[in-house]
Design a protein that fits this description.
Distance between the termini: 55 Å
Keywords: Membrane, Transmembrane, Transmembrane helix
Structural class: mainly alpha
Low-confidence stretches: none
Strand content: under 5%
């Protein structure tokens, strides 16, 4: 019997990593179709307008993929180690972007 791929649970940290690569992809992997399309368009328009608004919106997209379970819950990581690891990953990404541009 075929199983619906949307029913598969995707870890929030994996969704956040995919959203780092392509805005909205983490939401799409979690089965949140409309938020994924919304974030992809919003971040695309942000980058089209200017670099910094796009970067800010991209960060919000990553945070949404990481912390939103899709069921009216904004806490996605179940352990403190995952929260710290994700925060370090975001800081490393931002540091890389700042060092690369200046």
């Amino acid at each position: 019997m075929d199983q619906n791929p949307v029913d598969n649970k995707v870890d929030n940290s994996i969704a956040a990593i995919w959203s780092m690569m392509l805005p909205g992809l983490g939401q799409l992997l979690k089965g949140q179709i409309m938020p994924g399309i919304f974030w992809a368009l919003l971040v695309g328009f942000g980058y089209f307008g200017y670099f910094w608004p796009g970067l800010f919106l991209h960060g919000l997209c990553i945070m949404d993929a990481a912390f939103n379970k899709g069921e009216n819950s904004w806490i996605g990581f179940d352990t403190i180690y995952k929260k710290i690891g994700f925060a370090l990953l975001i800081l490393a990404l931002l540091a890389y972007i700042v060092i690369r541009n200046f």
